[in-house]
Amino acid sequence: MVSRRTFLRLFSLATLISLASLIGIPLSYRRRSRVLLEERIYGGVEYSVKGSLVYLPMPSLDGDTSVERALANRRSIREYTDAPITLHELSQILWAAYGVTETRYGFKTTPSAGATYPLEVYAVIGRNGVATPEGGFMEPGSYKYDPYSHTLRIVKKGDLIRDLYESALEQEWILEAPVNLVFTAVFERTTKRYGKRGERYVWIEVGHASQNVYLQATAMGLATVAIGAFYDDRIKMIIGASENERVLYMMTLARPSKAYELQEESLYIYITNNRESLKAKE
Q1: What's the pLDDT at 45?
Q2: Could you tell me which residues are beta bridge partners of residue 253?
Q3: Do 199 and 64 sit in the same domain of this protein?
């Protein structure tokens, strides 16, 4: 438990960082301030593991890739290298998928009908799939993400990637990816307010979360592909989901063997050619 005095000091530092952003203090200084804030909270520890909980590195709110460039380069990529992803990268992807972006009510990165937030996110990590800062690897298994504490809780231990692969029509990219995300939903959170119509809202929401993963992965130079072909009940059992959860979607997470990049010239030529085709039809 953080003492009142410590809380006030942290709050003051966080406020100064926010003000720095508003008045245009250089990004490098704001990043140094953020590191200082993390050190005050965690004593300089980037992350920690306590029992079944993994306290993830704090998400970053600044990046080197614009939204426009991430949109331009977003692709479903199915060919990967053998390299693991890092814990920081996994942390950032989970936050982008369904993390908290408003600290009074706990609103998240996705729109949600009535802020009912029906989704749950699992990270199924393979052996040597996620590298930790000290040079080791996260224990393989199925982990459930808690957006409010930005932690992972291990649900099932062991390398479950092949089980996912076999339960998803043996799509090779699942087997080759060091991490697979699985989205589930507790439909009742939304349908108890909106009735049958709420089912549609849940499916819409998982689409929002999926695109968040796509864009964040693209911005970080990672690869992903959305997967909808699988045996729902088998995936649910593999990841250790609760009885009231339904499996909706899967996404790989890996390093691409070849990244995609849209060239502005190619886009302009494409649009121009299609405009010429329109003129020809007039």
Answers
A1: 53
A2: 179
A3: yes
Give every CB contact of residue 115 below 8 A, 6+ residues apart in sequence: 105, 107
Bridge partners of 156, per DSSP, are 142
Which pLDDT tens digit goes with each residue over 57-79?
999 999 999 999 999 999 999 99
Q: Which residues contact 166 (CB under 8 A, 6 or more apart)?
A: none
B/e letters for 219-243, b = 16+ CB within 10 Å, e = fewer, are: bbebbbbbbeebeeeebbebbbbee
Residue 215 has pLDDT above 90, yes or no: yes
Range of the domain at 235: 54-253
Same domain (yes/no): 223, 168 = yes
User: Would you state the pLDDT for residue 23?
Assistant: 55
CA-CA distances (angstroms) from residue 183 to 28, 113, 228?
35, 17, 11
Mean pLDDT of the chain: 89
What percentage of the chain has pLDDT greater than the value 90?
A: 79
Q: Which residues contact 256 (CB under 8 A, 6 or more apart)?
A: 77, 79, 80, 81, 221, 222, 223
